[in-house]
Design a protein that fits this description.
Oligomer: heterodimer
Structural class of chain B: mainly alpha
Radius of gyration of chain B: 27 Å
Strand content of chain B: under 5%
Largest interface: A-B, 28 and 22 residues
Helix content of chain B: over 70%
Number of strands of chain B: 0
Number of strands of chain A: 10
Distance between the termini of chain A: 32 Å
Number of helices of chain B: 16
Structural class of chain A: alpha/beta
Chain lengths: 246, 366
């Protein structure tokens, strides 16, 4: 049994007085694909944002790839190089072309040469099936294309872990499929660890090794997808699943 | 590929709008009763003002007049005054025979500023260009080398003084204000406190009092015999003053940036300064170009306050020109003259900012 690549030990977080994460414990094995679901306000996004320090936890330990997350800036930056994130609202840089968005990280953080960075960028643009958009600006692309560019941008940094924070929630229904297809391909072909907060249960069934249900800041249930969807054990899980299409 | 799949009726051109002058008039000037009334009112005002102005400036005056008495006889704008006094207004009490030097120096300074505004010049050699221009400015104004007679800077006056105070004021207040804005938003309490105190103190006092303090109070604190050049003191006061306003404007731009941009930059591992330089500041500064340019235009005109510490700028020179006993009563001529000069510079700055905004928008058109 190899060392977990992400380990959360008794993690607690408060937003002011509001206790958003309560004694979270989670171990993620390298290469594991995890889908996290739950009602809004359950702390799912907060939890994955703590993993790359976009949010700070007040109690407990978070250990990513052997490094503990503390206030040490150098460590945080090192961890962020290995953890890629895809946001609900894409967060592309609108004043740069698609190619520039993708080459910025490799050129400035990984210190690669311009030619190398561009080659990597084009490779991943082809992987997400939009190589012809390289010289356009994000504002000229559709939502589905923008999200695929965002996925390619994270991939260009060669991360060990990919975090997805509701990647398809802001997309028109006809664009959801194109982004999910890219994510399924990514899950199947690369050995990357993926944590995905999503409501797309079809995706969970296809790809996930584990589905986690969170409510009010706690992990209520976790199981393999088929067992999770077909035989939910906890009452709250059953209630949640009955409310969403799965 | 989409076009082949998309069936349905073909696109038509929009309906033919009213063409030509009548159409333009109808939509732009007379589209509603209120607009029609406003148009007529505006036309009437122009009809009153413009002929009167042309008459005052070009028809009434006698262009061959050379003395004050002749001007007073014919009325209208006294161009003789401008002919007589323009060198005093533009160059102050700089030695008459050497006034080609401040003229050349001003031209060089304006030229290098214009070059800095053109994107083609945004390369490392621009720094070298600036150093050369400043060296040339210094050599021309001070002299003492290359056979030029030495002219100390208390004799400088008029346009070159205004230009140098504004140029350095803007050029140095901008980066300083930027750092203050970033410092004020910093998580480090010490840095934040210093920036807040500085900004609030400076914004709380008028520029006049800062100039006064620099001129009167500073010598009291300096050791005996050690003095800082008066022009330099004024320059520093102007820079310190403008930086506080630049800081608050830039801070507004930084606050307007969506949090997602900061997070997007962090998620690909960019450090604080890298994300500021490549992601946040390019976008934030673009948003605040209008108020920033407003600060710079105000700064250009605020340099006229240095008269309070006895420095001869353009406005003071105009005042001195008018105080001449022979040419008493021609203050309109003097102030109209310098107003035109101020307007030319301020309007150029304003136009440039519009073109800069348009250039930066290119990439983000949908």
């Amino acid at each position: 049994m190899s060392e977990p690549i992400i380990r959360l030990k008794n993690v607690n977080k408060w937003y002011g007085q509001f206790h958003v994460l309560k004694d979270l414990n989670l171990d993620v094995a390298p290469g594991e694909r995890i889908v996290i679901c739950g009602p809004s306000g359950s702390g799912k996004s907060t939890m994955i944002r703590c993993i790359n320090r976009l949010e700070e936890h007040q109690e407990g330990e978070i250990i990513v790839d052997g490094t503990e997350l503390t206030n040490d800036l150098k460590q945080i930056e090192a961890i962020r190089r290995d953890v890629g994130m895809v946001f609900q609202h894409f967060n592309l840089f609108p004043h740069m072309t698609v190619l520039e968005n993708l080459t910025l990280g490799p050129a400035w953080v990984l210190k690669r040469s311009k030619a190398e960075a561009e080659a990597t960028a084009m490779k991943y643009l082809e992987r997400v099936r939009i190589p012809d958009q390289a010289h356009k600006y994000p504002g000229q692309l559709s939502g589905g294309q923008q999200q695929r560019v965002a996925i390619a941008r994270s991939l260009c940094m060669n991360p060990k872990i990919m975090l997805f924070d509701e990647p398809t929630s802001a997309l028109d229904p006809e664009m959801v499929k194109e982004v999910l297809d890219v994510m399924v391909e990514l899950a199947r072909e690369s050995g990357m660890t993926m944590l995905c907060v999503t409501h797309e249960m079809g995706f969970a069934r296809k790809v996930a090794d584990r589905v986690i249900f969170m409510d009010h800041g706690e992990i209520i249930e976790q199981n393999a997808p088929d067992a999770f969807f077909d035989h939910p054990q906890n009452e709250r899980t059953r209630l949640f699943l009955s409310q969403i299409l799965h | 590929m989409d076009k082949a799949l998309r069936s349905g009726s073909p696109d038509r051109l929009p309906p033919h709008t009213d063409a030509g002058i009548i159409g333009w008039l109808r939509t732009r000037l007379f589209s509603s009763p209120l607009n029609a009334v406003l148009t007529i009112l505006a036309l009437w005002l122009l009809l009153m003002a413009i002929p009167a102005l042309i008459d005052y400036l070009f028809v009434k005056p006698d262009f061959s007049a050379t003395t004050a008495a002749q001007c007073r006889e014919t009325g209208g704008y006294c161009w003789a005054f401008v002919r007589e006094k323009h060198r005093l207004i533009l160059f102050g009490i700089y030695p008459y025979a050497e006034q080609w030097r401040p003229l050349l120096a001003s031209v060089i300074l304006v030229a290098v500023v214009i070059c800095s505004c053109i994107r083609w010049f945004w390369k490392p050699f621009l720094g070298v260009l600036w150093l050369l221009a400043l060296a040339a400015f210094g050599v021309l104004m001070w002299g003492g080398v290359f056979g030029l007679t030495y002219v100390e800077n208390s004799r400088w006056g008029g346009l070159p003084v205004t230009l140098i105070l504004s140029t350095f004021g803007i050029a140095l207040a901008f980066p300083f204000g930027l750092l203050l804005a970033l410092g004020r938003r910093s998580d480090m309490p010490g840095v934040k406190a210093v920036c807040v105190v500085y900004i609030e103190l400076i914004r709380g006092v008028p520029l006049v009092s800062l100039l006064f303090m620099s001129s009167v109070m500073l010598p009291l604190f300096l050791p005996e015999g050690f003095s800082i050049d008066k022009l330099l003191r004024a320059q520093i006061a102007i820079i310190l003053f403008a930086a506080a306003y630049v800081a608050e404007t830039v801070r507004g731009g930084l606050q307007a940036m969506p949090k997602g941009q900061y997070e997007g930059a962090q998620s690909i591992g960019l450090s604080y300064w890298q994300s500021m330089r490549k992601i946040i500041l390019p976008q934030a500064l673009k948003i605040v170009i209008p108020p920033l340019v407003g600060i710079f235009i105000s700064l250009f005109k605020d340099t006229s306050l240095v008269v309070i510490i006895g420095i001869f700028d353009l406005t003071q020179a105009a005042k001195v020109a008018v105080s001449d006993a022979v040419w008493r009563g021609f203050s309109t001529e003097a102030y109209l003259f310098i107003s035109v000069i101020y307007f030319i510079f301020c309007f150029s700055i304003s136009r440039y900012s519009l073109s800069l905004e348009r250039q930066l928008d290119q990439g983000q058109k949908r």
